[in-house]
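USER: If only I could read backbone structure tokens as easily as an amino acid sequence. It would mean a lot if you studied the pair and described how this chain folds. Here is the record:
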Amino acid sequence: MRIAIGSDHRGVAARLRLIGLLERLGHEVVDCGSHGTEAVDYPDIAADVAHRVSHGTVDRGVLLCCTGVGMAIAANKVHGVRAATCHDEVTAEMSRRHNDLNVLCLSAEMLGQELQDKMIQTWLETPFEGGRHARRLAKIEALEPDCGERQGDSLVE
């Protein structure tokens, strides 16, 4: 699987460690930064990862910031992205089973390394169940704008 991963300045250490985990698990990783500890605006990183997922240049994305919440909010503004902040293995699993989550957002500072690792592995290994959940996702997708200008996309009507 091809996975884009990004973090703000507070998630650099966790991102670098998780890149190693993803590569050991056999995934191709696209590192979207941030590449230092100087403050950056997390929406920029979230947009980069989310657009790669939206355009299909990667299969999934992982985002890290202090809480994971800001990254999820920003990533969900991109058409076709389903991002959520997960806090444990159960939410990581259910986000895939029921929501076909394609961008996992994690707290870089409030989750231990072992839990982050387990959550990533669970999220990557869990399939989408489809069925009634696919019907619900179609309803969510219908809520997204489907024409006109979208920030960051080349679509202009």
